[in-house]
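Preliminary data (for renewal application), fe (ii) ion complex.
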Amino acid sequence: MNLYDRIPNNVNLSEDKRLQRALEKWLPNFLAWWHDMGPEGFQEKDVWLRTAVDVGSEGWAHFEYVKMPEYRWGIFLEPAQPNAKVGFGDNYGAPAYQEVPGEFRNALRRIIVTQGDTEPASVEQQRQLGHTCPSLYDLRNLFQVNVEEGRHLWAMVYLLQGYFGRDGRDEADALLERRSGNPDKPRILEAFNQPCDDWLNFYAFTMFTDRDGKFQLSALAESGFEPLARTCKFMLTEEAHHMFVGDTGLTRVVKRTAQLMKQNPNEDVRALGGIPLDIIQKYINFWFSYSLDLFGGEISSNSADFFAAGLKGRFKEQEQYTDHVAAEGSFTMMVVEDGKLEPREVPLRNALNEILRGEYVKDCEKGLARWNKALADEGINQRLYLPNVRFHRHVGEYAGHYFDLEGNLISKEEFGQKKNEWLPTMEDREYVASLMKPVTEPGKIANWIAPPAAGIKGKPFEFEYVRL
Ligand SMILES: [Fe+2]
Ligand SMILES: [Fe+2]
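Predicted structure:
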């Protein structure tokens, strides 16, 4: 473990001079990007952050006050397994790849670049949120997510520079050049070009969009390309916190809304400065549908090639499946044919994006159950739900068609008429934005959200998580 190197790492960086030079050259560019595009207005503040310092089971992180630009972004991989094997596909059981298999070089680079691009993108999307934090606890969580997305970028850049030579170095530079939402040099995936400018967006984003990350990383953590698998396994440890922030953040918003509904004779939450359930539902519809797009097309020859090559597996490939070759079998899904929804059977390997998406939906439903429990606990009868997976899609079989929340095919006109009931309107966004007033006194919380059930790492909610 080289913790006190300029770039903390457990990959023996000091013994690989070429890679070390490449990363040290990239480091000042990364810091320049962080200063330009990282959280605005808080760079000089002390934030009580966790920093990854080890990958061992007894405590992989430690907590202390850090100024974000001094955060120790490092490169940490899960330890190598002796005799690691390719765990699925046509080369099932062969020794794991320690180098990039030549024929898949471009495709693998694309996967790593696409994953890597999401990391700085989300930091850019969230850079103004600090100014309107509902509490110091939430402010700290925002910054924790931001610095870890920065570290995830490092993780992907390590792979690019370590395994893809000159092309990899060029891609590493380009990751710092694209900008979320910029029409001339946008981020690669659309969910990462959407504004995330209020805290309801932030919680929905970390709930739904970071959760896509969990499933992509889980599929790559199965990879037969061992450096990628080991990198992603460690990223998943950090990712769990991001989803926690979103999931519990939404629970707290829903709980507060329910409390305010009971306080007003007409259940009019607006009159009391809360966020109405119908607006929360629209934000769910928006971020869930954009996040579904991140899994790619329902029927995909890329997914089949990647599985065949042993590069991208299924969710919990080793635990959940016995047939790791999956050369036979099929999967039936609904597709649009001649203006109607029809079932189509496709070879299993071509349906792996859709299968991964299905795992993701199951995981999202658990969040919905928690939010609905919060409503039930407060004695409110209304419930939140996930829209059908066909609703409001921009990628895959359903893109270019229109569906209602139940997944029924409808006309473009009908969609246009209903859109304002289903997705956040300008007025909804303006109303939510009007509630976003910063609360920065330790122990205080904004009116539209309930305090968390507990603080962080044994500290109370009142703890001064950020010294302003
Ligand atoms: Fe990430
Ligand atoms: Fe994340």
